[in-house]
Write a structure and sequence with these properties.
Layout: E1 9-10, E2 15-17, E3 25-31, E4 34-38, E5 44-49, E6 54-55, H1 58-62, E7 69-72, E8 76-82, H2 83-92, H3 95-116, H4 129-149, E9 153-162, E10 168-179, E11 183-185, H5 187-196, H6 200-222, E12 233-238, H7 240-244, H8 248-258, E13 266-271, H9 272-277, H10 279-291, E14 295-301, H11 308-311, E15 318-321, H12 323-328, H13 333-348, E16 352-355, H14 361-369, E17 374-375, H15 386-398
Parallel strand pairs: 10-12, 12-13, 13-14, 14-15, 15-16, 16-17
Antiparallel strand pairs: 1-8, 2-7, 3-6, 3-8, 4-5, 4-7, 9-10, 9-17, 10-11
The chain binds guanosine-5'-monophosphate (2 copies) and manganese (II) ion (MN).
Amino acid sequence: MQNVIPSEDVDAGTLIFREGEAGDCAYLIQRGRVEISVDGDDSQVLAILREGELFGEMALIDGEPRSATARAVSECTLLPVTQTLIESKLKTADALTRVLLKLALGRLRRMHAHHRDANSEEGGSVHDQTLQRVVSELTLATDLHKALESDELELHFQPIVRLADGALSGLEVLSRWNRAGAGYVPPQEFITVAEETNLILPLGRQLLRRACAALTRIESQLMSLESETAPLFVAVNVSARQLYADNEVGELLDVIHASDLPPERVKLEITESVLLDDPPKAAAAMRQLADAGVRLAIDDFGTGYSSLNYLHRFPLHTLKIDRSFVDNLMLNDAGQSIVRAIVALAHELGMQVVAEGIEQAQQQKWLSQHNCEFAQGYLISRPLPEDDLIRWATKRSAE
Ligand code: G
Ligand code: G
Ligand code: MN
């Protein structure tokens, strides 16, 4: 069998591939005509393809045997498109797109089968795990939509304290989804789905509104505690979609202005990698927030591709050192050198520093001695529901 083909010319009549074979290549016709046909009792020509058309891609997409035979009708120049290329393109496509592609392809294959054999059975489906994953993502999205209207989304608050004197300075809001019948869904999971479905926009606004209201309530409760009088800030995580969506920054500012908090008491945490997607656009969005008085923090600092080149262009108030650096702090000298350098860099650029993920007293002491202003972590407190947070603060002020 002459299962050609180089990227060169083939003569008229050349068999390029035959129905039923395994496929390893698709082809773009640069010159000439190619006939696509199916065998069987009544062999049929499905199509005559010409310059600029692509064929042989189906087997590469779904890994099934060739669904038809391809033959050069005239002298042709063919450009091979390799399986590796197609696979790498598919890998970066999102799951739903891949499923849609495979479903459509499955239907096309069954149509071909009907051409060949009118009695052919229905069969073939997207039987891999991708479909299951997409279905579970879609139901997650539907449920999340409902959760927005009910009270399934809970806010937890993790204290951020000033290292100099241990005073409670702010609270980071972390959302928890108590999904009906399914227990807690981790934020990494539902935030991703919310981003993919754009639910992150209404969700983000709701969380911000509730976070501002909660801070006002919490403060009025803490007012009675002598040692906790300074105004607190509330830190809310914001995702890329929120920052980049048209008019969304305006929406977020409306939420803040409608709350009882001055904008200076609201801090939006933005993950480092988000800023590098589109630095000029991120900078414009951040400028709009900063001009309104809102504080901005760069979150998980050191985990993305830190472009130090861009850092000074963003109106950042706070740098949050990722907890992986805090983890390594007591392990070796290098760990300490890196944190010292990050703190110096932040201060040089006029930012305050929050160290995240503090779990040991030793780490806290070291950070305090090395000019880090704020600390957050399990050593101080886990993220807590509102009631527990009030209890935590009350107990602490009594000590
Ligand atoms: O607390 P936990 O480990 O479950 O949180 C995981 C991550 O989810 C956090 O790092 C945080 O960035 C993200 N996250 C939690 N709550 C929110 C939220 O309300 N909005 C956004 N965009 N991200 C959140
Ligand atoms: O990405 P972001 O910095 O917003 O993530 C905060 C996350 O870190 C939350 O999921 C929170 O539960 C978690 N976290 C907070 N303090 C600690 C800590 O001391 N140790 C660990 N392992 N995780 C922490
Ligand atoms: Mn954060």
